[in-house]
Amino acid sequence: MSLENLEHIKKEAQQCKSCPLYATRNNIVFSDGSPNAKILLIGEAPGADEDKLGKPFVGRAGKLLNEFLIKAGLERQKDLYIANTLKCRPPENRKPQKEEKAACEKFLHAQIKTINPKVIVLCGATAMESFLDKKLKISKVRGQIFENVEGYEGIKFIPILHPSYLLRQHSLDEGSPRDLTLKDLIMIKKTALD
Ligand code: URA
């Protein structure tokens, strides 16, 4: 991990005009957490709160994510490095477009290579589609470990459900989305930190 390298990538992202989103964002959302983390969590894209504060997962979904991390025994600022597939907010919180993801992936790729995590948590379908077979369904493969992802050999990829989805799922029953997500995060902690 090289802090200078991360600062350099961030500066490049701040100057990036490879897609139209730079014109409507307030701040780029580059990362949060520790550059020494063994777990790199990748979300979708910044929302309004993230765009305002320049940090990922600081809105409602982020607060729920924090609750899950605490319950799983993970420290957000120490155990995780957090980024998104896009550094700039898509207007109206729409899903990232293929061209926007393609324009932005160089920054995420450089972050991954610099951090060199043991585990990459793909948070939600958008992040999963950036790395795994697009035909996979997150509801079927969440909690599974994918290895030998082209270009990222040696890193374990684990999809989990996105906290924005969990905001609409309140049950804590065994096998419910919230229950499964907590179990996935506990497994991720074991896989990355034990
Ligand atoms: N949702 C995401 O996927 N990323 C964020 O940073 C915030 C909400």
What labels would you give this structure?
single chain; 194 residues; alpha/beta; 5-stranded mixed sheet; 5 strands; 44% helix; binds uracil
Walk me through this protein's architecture.
The chain is an alpha/beta fold and 194 residues long. It contains nine helices and five strands. It has helices at 3-15, 48-53, 60-71, 76-79, 98-115, 125-131, 138-141, 163-166, 177-193, and strands at 32-33, 39-43, 80-84, 119-123, 156-160. The longest helix has 18 residues, at 98-115. The structure holds uracil (URA). Residues 29, 43-47, 50, 56-57, 59, 61-62, 84 line the site of uracil. Uracil is lined by residues 29, 43-47, 50, 56-57, 59, 61-62, 84.
Rg computed from alpha carbons, rounded to a whole number of angstroms: 16 Å
What's the helix-strand series?
HEEHHHEHEHHEHH
Helix fraction, binned, reads 40-55%
Class by SSE composition: alpha/beta
Number of helices: 9
Mean residue pLDDT: 97
Q: Main sheet? A: 5 strands, mixed
Bound molecules: uracil
Enumerate the spans where pLDDT stays under 50 for 5 or more consecutive residues.
Answer: none
Q: Identify the strand order in the major beta sheet.
A: 1-3-2-4-5
Question: Based on CA inertia axes, which overall geometry fits?
Answer: globular
Q: What is the distance, rounded to the nearest whole angstrom, between the alpha carbons of the first and last residues?
A: 20 Å
Beta content comes to 5-15%
